[in-house]
UniProtKB/TrEMBL annotation:
Species for this entry: Gryllotalpicola protaetiae
Molecular functions (GO terms): cysteine desulfurase activity; pyridoxal phosphate binding
Enzyme Commission number(s) from the entry: 2.8.1.7
Keyword Transferase tagged: yes
Residue ranges annotated for the Aminotransferase class V domain, each copy included: 34-416
Designated gene of the protein: sufS
Annotated protein name in UniProt: Cysteine desulfurase
Record field: catalytic activity: (sulfur carrier)-H + L-cysteine = (sulfur carrier)-SH + L-alanine
SUPFAM superfamilies reported for this sequence: PLP-dependent transferases
Record family assignment: Belongs to the class-V pyridoxal-phosphate-dependent aminotransferase family. Csd subfamily.
Length: 429
């Protein structure tokens, strides 16, 4: 297995790597913190915290606007972060547009298609315009952020929203997707990695199915960009979205990826300053991508921090991170499988899954299970994980999710498993 290492700390093991993350060095309810909620929000290493603070202390200024030295330095660092993120996900810098989060990025695509469907954007935008009866396809496993924007777009345009059903484990197959896609399909939106089941989607096959009917593909990469090597250009998806706060970066920043020619053809759904070339009292013309999707004041210090975060992840070695998480996920799955009264959700033993496991505790509500674990200093996610249709299909209102990242250790997993085994006995079951 590849070994985690960073140039910043010189460490070579997750236990040592943990020292780079100040928040992890604390006790919660009298116990050393075991943080197993990185699928919701990852913690930030000191170098990321330092990068944002240093920018604010020394170079904080408006980007792409002022002519003074600070503005020039701020712009250079801001665009340098864009280039770093683009390299990290296998894209061009002009294919990366800053958004406020991944949800915002997905909405940006939907808004733009809706704008094109209203006849805006000129000749180049007509390729995106939807007509009544056109079809948008999602899966039943999607996060609400990759479902509700398409529901709204369908309602606004008269398009039909169709979905790929999941089985009793919350999984779907490429054959089931093929059965839903028709010649009327104009867009397929799906998660690279499910935030509930940990299922890894067959991206290349989905892209081929979409291409066979001329449909666009939109990839929710929130649970893949932080954890596995990602080459968006090579994958062939048309658009993708991911969030900084899940990959050691700050909140308030997301990334919209789009093929250059598509971004430049899409009309912006949001308008204002910073994204225009010419404005008169009755007309405006817009900059090329990515600036055409970046109206208003930008999240500059957050972008700088994300640039530092992808530098840290690159130094640690993304293939090594993936290997490490696979090992921990297998330990999580095997350990939870041996505990009576737990129902595990997602791929079974021997099938690839991301570094997370969701489960239901018989006779104990997920929130109560989470509070018990919290009393032991263990942070997990409880609830429907912004995936109510999936939970409804599974016959659940909520589940418990434990997720790992590069700073988690075997000891973290073992402490969690020992506590998980005590949930039902604690409640007298």
């Amino acid at each position: 297995m590849a070994t985690l290492t960073t140039a910043h700390s010189g460490t070579t093991s997750p236990a040592d790597l943990r020292a780079d993350f100040p928040l992890l060095d604390q006790t919660v309810n009298g116990h050393p913190l075991v943080y197993l909620d990185s699928a919701a929000t990852a913690q930030r290493p000191q170098v990321v915290l330092d990068a944002e603070l240093e920018f604010l202390e020394k170079r904080n200024a408006a980007v792409h606007r002022g002519a003074h030295t600070l503005a020039a330095e701020a712009t250079e660092e801001f665009e340098g972060a864009r280039e770093a993120v683009a390299r990290f996900v296998g894209a061009r810098a002009d294919e990366i547009a800053w958004q406020s989060n991944a949800t915002d990025a997905l909405n940006t695509i939907a808004f733009a298609i809706g704008t094109a469907s209203r006849g805006r954007g000129g000749e180049g935008a007509r390729r995106f315009a939807l007509q009544p009866g056109d079809e948008l396809v999602v899966t039943e496993a999607e996060h609400h952020a990759n479902l509700i924007p398409w529901q709204e777009l369908a309602a606004q345009t008269g398009a039909v929203l169709r979905y790929v059903p999941v089985d009793e484990d919350g999984l779907w197959t490429i054959d089931e997707l093929r059965a839903v896609v028709t010649e009327k399909t104009r867009l397929i939106a799906f998660a690279h990695v499910s935030n509930v089941t940990g299922m890894v989607a067959p991206v290349a096959e989905v892209v081929r199915v979409a291409a066979s009917v001329g449909a666009l593909t939109v990839l929710d990469a929130c649970q893949s960009a932080p954890h596995r090597p990602l080459e968006l250009g090579a994958l062939g998806v048309d658009f993708a979205a991911f969030s900084a706060h899940k990959m050691l970066g700050p909140t308030g920043l997301g990334v919209l990826y789009g093929k250059r020619e598509l971004l430049n053809a899409l009309p912006p759904g949001r308008t204002g300053g910073s994204m225009i070339t010419t404005v008169t009292m009755d007309h405006a013309e817009f900059l090329p991508a990515p600036q055409r999707f970046e109206a208003g004041t930008q999240p500059v210090s957050q972008a700088v921090a994300l640039g530092a975060a992808v530098g840290y992840l690159t130094d640690a070695g993304v293939p090594a991170i993936l290997d490490h998480e696979h090992a921990l996920a297998a330990r999580l799955y095997d350990g939870l499988s041996s505990i009576p009264g737990l129902r595990l959700i997602g791929p079974g033993a021997g099938v690839e899954r991301a570094g997370l496991v969701s489960f239901d505790v018989a006779g104990v509500h997920a929130h109560d299970a989470g509070q018990y674990l919290d009393s032991r200093g263990i942070a997990v996610r409880v609830g429907h994980h912004c995936a109510q249709p999936l939970h409804r299909r599974l016959g659940l209102t909520a589940s418990v999710r434990a997720s790992v990242y590069l700073y988690n250790t075997v000891d973290d997993v073992d402490v969690f498993l020992e506590a998980a085994a005590g949930i039902r006995p604690y409640f007298g079951l």
